[in-house]
Predict the structure.
Amino acid sequence: MTKLIKQNQVNDKILKQAGHIIREGGLVAFPTETVYGLGADGLNEEAIDKIFVAKNRPQDNPVILHVGSVEMAQALTTDDLRPYQDLIEAFWPGPLSLIVNKSDEVPYQATGGLDTVAIRFPRNDIAIQLIQAANRPLAGPSANISGRPSPTDAQTVMEDLAGRIDMVLDGGPTTIGIESTVLDISTPQPQILRPGAITQEDIMAFIPDVTLDASLEDISQRPKSPGQKYKHYAPSKPTALFVGDQDAKLANIKDYLDPKKTYGYMISSELRVRLDLDETAIVYVYGSIEDHKSIAEKIFKTLRLLDKEDIDEIIVEGLDYTGQGLAIMNRLEKSAGGNIIGQKI
Ligand code: TXA
Ligand code: MG
């Protein structure tokens, strides 16, 4: 039985209980500012194993350890975090995970056998209070069955994990909607392994020579982050992603449609006006094509909604790869399983 604690019922007493469940080796899903996480004691090998079973997650895919302070982070690594103090002050708490060399305290279960560990200080009161109540770093992958779109509200966590975990803390819908930026500072050449709301330009203010993992610009390259190589964020229905300028996207979508099939759409308000769809069409508008924040917030939820519609195929409108667009397109490309139509802009 999974206990769902409604948003207005999350109080000190509940958080104490939740912290106790974590200390006893149980699993508690919690809100963060990015997506919901599936929490376990990050120092307890058996508890971490349970995460992999509940999510059906490949064993070699390491998890992020969530901390409630910089001191807690420092204890998990043999690296000195002080040279990164300005970066950390700028983005923690927030959607930035740092890959550093692990200390002996961190079990290999959390790192998928690697000598590095991902650490993040989330910007969400419930998450921070849960970490404090447990007085442990929380192992916290996204709280979905592996491969499915990440959950941005508590109902979606229940949809995937009810009966498999002990508790879900409802903190309302998440504000960012896509997972944290993963930045590897464990080697002399800092590298972004997974793009997120914090962009390369944001990080360059602190690390001018930060680079992007080669696989983010060329999909034939092998990604350094184990999680990036798996099929991900994917609805069960076939999904096609259209990229390019508005005219090209419009023309390509019209060409692609097969009159014998039914479609559901996730598109911008701009394209909505130009695509002449009849009123029975299943259309979810994610906002203006220029509003990256609104798009990031909606993509995972919308993909799940489209998956439940009575349609044969999902049509997704892509956007430009600049700023947060890079992170959004990284998720959408994976959702489409590589079925990308048009020229990237
Ligand atoms: O925003 C987020 O990061 C969310 C919330 C819950 O905090 N968590 C999340 O966790 O997205 P997860 O497990 O779904 O993704 C973690 C990513 C994976 O791609 C994994 O491969 C990568 O981080 N990762 C973790 N440890 C790593 C390491 N030591 N080296 C390289 N990549 C690592
Ligand atoms: Mg995930």
Remarks:
- The pocket of threonylcarbamoyladenylate (ligand 1) is lined by residues 32, 34-35, 37, 61-64, 95, 97, 99, 111, 114, 116-118, 120, 122, 140-142, 179-180, 182, 193-194, 225-228 (CB under 6 Å).
- The first helix runs from residue 12 to 23.
- The mean pLDDT is 96.
- DSSP finds twelve helices and 16 strands in the chain.
